[in-house]
Write a structure and sequence with these properties.
- The structure holds 2 protein chains of 2 kinds.
- Chain A contains 11 helices and 2 strands; from the N terminus they run H-H-H-H-E-E-H-H-H-H-H-H-H.
- By secondary structure, chain A is mainly alpha-helical.
- Chain A has a two-stranded antiparallel ribbon with strand order 1-2.
- Chain A is globular and about 60 Å long.
- Chain A starts with a helix and ends in a 13-residue tail after the last helix.
- Chain B has a two-stranded antiparallel ribbon.
- The longest helix of chain B has 31 residues.
- The two termini of chain B are 41 Å apart.
- Classes of the chains: A mainly alpha, B mainly alpha.
- At the A-B interface, helix 4, helix 9 and helix 11 of A face helix 6, helix 13 and helix 15 of B.
Chain lengths: 301, 355
């Protein structure tokens, strides 16, 4: 029992941190550009695939050439690639429809399906192995934590901190907050909202890709074509915390991370319930707080 | 007596349908569908069309809710799935006749809509969209976890059909003939259901209630200020929409649509929720005929691309996306507006000539 509790405490925190990274991207593009991006899960999936492909082309092999330097290069290249894809998607598909929220929704669903089909077309049914960033594990306090999980935790939290400072302090961050508050006023102040939204989309896709690279390897089976689960998780988190609120998604991510691990640890045979449990928690929270826990916008933070 | 009545029916038909180009087009289209079986197509073509009609009805019901009241729900599969399940469950395990289970499940769907509508409609905009998406997924997992004959991955296997094969075989038809007749009978049943329901949906959408719903879509607080009970109307839209989504689900469960089993992934999955959204946006939102055209076009187009196996889905989705980006108002709406414009121009020309 005690062992289960410590396990829950540690694993919940780890998955919460990575989920926060995933959900931040979702909330950012909504907060700044009012885009509910249903392709967010697809960017997550694309991130893991791109990472794996870059590694193969760089000559990485988990047995003969397990070079951490190549892993590092791929870890940088893959999210940048996905960010680039996000920019293209925004410019060519979302931007022409930006005034009509429902069309944007449909187009992002379409984008997710297109990305899924492209991946299916290139890789067929075979799964791509996504290597861990670090091998090995430590066992403090009787909880086995792999170095990969530890690195994910640290990396996620530091990226979130960097993003937070970027939004709060930098000039572009200021522009983002301004556009979130009032798009027309921001345009009048000389902010190029189109370019700003493209940049936001790139950051959002980049965060999803990093979350994909971090979250896919520890999963028991590499079902990479699964883009709906991360999507459902990210919107459960974001709704729970309040759409467009960075603080909210942080809180939401840890809540959902703990709920998911709680189901996995205390009901071992019922692993398939974890998604439903997260959604039920989301619905319950929404019943009492119709705008999430922190129903505010990016500008308020 | 009968003659004058028929004359009156004809004249009202002529002024209300034949003189309105879009309606005339829809009427001719329906006639075409009615006579398609005369060309003796193979049963596969009939099956594809039948499924297209089911989705057309499903999408039209979504359009009544979203296109009119503006409450964007992404979880319409919930009603489709609930009705398909309940109807299959009652008829298979409790021996109820299908003619009773479908209305029953439709009513149950409306009840479910009101029950989840009360808390759901408190939330607005994207919150509503994403919350409604959660319900079919939760139900999906619940059914998935139930033991085998009722739940599980396979769902309810072999639900009773509207027209069992035995019915035809007892009357001296061979097995292959019976299968064809079964398909044909289902084709007509579902086509007529689609026709009747779409007229009802169209009438509701353009009734006084429909106009009130549009006022909520345009400006909720203004409608409230005018003394409209916004919540009541939203719930009404939710319930009526669920009623017809339930009909689509019931038709699906007992026809070829189910393909041998009412499985949770097929009726409650994320894609089933996305279908009406994509079809409606493609055809034209808020029109009722838009989703029908959308469903019909997209579903048959998908069969066409089944030939180009490898790239088919990619090409197919890309085409849809291009259409949506190029014609955001929807293809059918675009055509109908053009037709109406032409009719108006002609009228003006005629008036000028008279002068």
């Amino acid at each position: 029992m005690i062992e289960n509790l410590t396990n829950l405490l540690v694993y919940g925190a780890i998955s919460g941190a990575v989920y926060a990274l995933l959900a931040l991207g979702f909330t950012l593009i909504y907060g700044v550009a009012d885009v509910v991006n249903m392709a967010h899960g697809a960017f997550y999936m694309l991130g893991a695939y791109a990472f794996s492909v870059f590694l193969i082309h760089l000559g990485y092999n988990s047995i003969t050439n397990p070079s951490p330097f190549l892993l590092f290069i791929a870890l940088i290249l893959a999210p940048i690639f996905v960010g680039f894809v996000g920019t293209i998607v925004y410019r060519s598909l979302i931007h022409p429809l930006i005034e009509d929220a429902l069309s944007v929704l449909v187009v992002t669903i379409g984008t997710a399906l297109i990305l899924q089909q492209i991946i299916l077309f290139i890789f067929g049914d075979k799964d791509m192995p996504v290597p861990k960033l670090l091998e090995g594990s430590i066992t403090p306090l009787g909880v086995t934590v792999t170095y990969h999980e530890l690195l994910s935790f640290v990396l996620s939290l530091s990226l979130i901190a960097v993003l937070w400072i970027f939004i709060a302090r930098s000039k572009i961050g200021g522009a983002m907050r301004a556009a979130a508050q009032d798009r027309e006023a921001a345009t009048l102040m000389g902010i190029n909202t189109e370019r700003l939204y493209m940049l936001t989309m790139a950051i959002s896709a980049l965060l999803a890709a990093i979350a994909g690279i971090l979250l896919v390897p520890p999963a028991a089976s590499p079902i990479l074509r699964e883009w709906t689960y991360p999507l459902v998780m990210s919107f459960a988190i974001v709704i729970l915390g309040g759409l467009g609120s960075i603080k909210g998604s942080l809180v939401g991510a840890f809540v959902i991370g703990y709920v998911e691990k709680f189901v996995l640890i205390f009901f071992p045979g019922m692993g398939f319930l974890k998604g439903a449990a997260a959604l039920i928690v989301m619905v319950l929270v929404l019943l009492f707080r119709p705008k999430g826990v922190f129903g505010k916008r990016v500008e308020a933070e | 007596m009968v003659g004058t009545f028929l004359k009156r029916v004809y004249s009202s038909f002529a002024t209300k349908v034949l003189d309105v180009p879009p309606r005339l087009l829809a009427f001719l289209f329906f006639l075409l569908l009615l006579f398609i079986p005369m060309a003796k197509p193979d049963s596969y073509t009939l099956l594809i069309l039948t499924i297209a009609y089911i989705y057309a009805l499903f999408a039209a019901s979504w359009d009544l809710l979203v296109g009119r009241s503006g409450q964007v729900s992404l979880g319409h599969a919930l009603f489709f799935g609930v009705a398909a399940y309940l109807s299959a469950f009652l008829s298979k395990f409790h021996g109820f006749p299908i003619w009773a289970t479908i209305p029953l499940s439709m009513l149950f769907c409306a009840l479910v809509a009101v029950l989840i509508g009360v808390p759901c409609l408190r939330v607005k905009g994207p919150y509503l969209t994403l919350v409604t998406l959660a319900f079919p997924l939760i139900l999906f997992v619940i059914i998935f976890s139930l033991p085998s004959p009722v739940g599980g991955e396979g769902g309810i296997a072999l639900p009773p059909r509207f027209f069992p094969r035995e019915f035809f075989m007892e009357r001296g038809f061979s097995l292959s003939e019976a299968v064809y007749l079964q398909t044909l009978a289902e084709y007509y049943l579902i086509l007529v259901s689609l026709f009747v329901s779409s007229i009802i949906l169209y009438r509701v959408a353009n009734s006084k209630t429909g106009i009130v719903l549009v006022s909520i879509l345009d400006d909720e607080s203004a409608s409230k200020a005018c003394g409209i009970n916004v919540t009541k109307y939203k719930l009404l839209a939710f319930a009526v929409s669920a009623l017809f989504a339930g009909l689509a689900g019931g038709l699906y469960a007992h026809s070829f649509g189910a393909q041998g089993a009412v499985a949770p992934e097929a009726v409650l999955g994320l894609t089933t929720s996305f279908y009406p959204v994509i079809m409606t946006i493609f055809g034209g939102i808020g029109t009722i005929y838009g989703p029908i055209v959308g469903a019909f076009t997209l579903w048959t187009l998908m069969e066409f691309f089944r030939v180009a196996a490898e790239l088919r889905a990619l090409i197919y989705i890309s085409i849809i996306i291009i259409f949506i980006v190029k014609w955001p108002t929807g293809v059918a709406k675009f055509v109908v507006e053009k037709l109406n414009d032409l009719a108006k121009e002609r009228e003006i020309d005629e008036r000028k000539k008279k002068k």
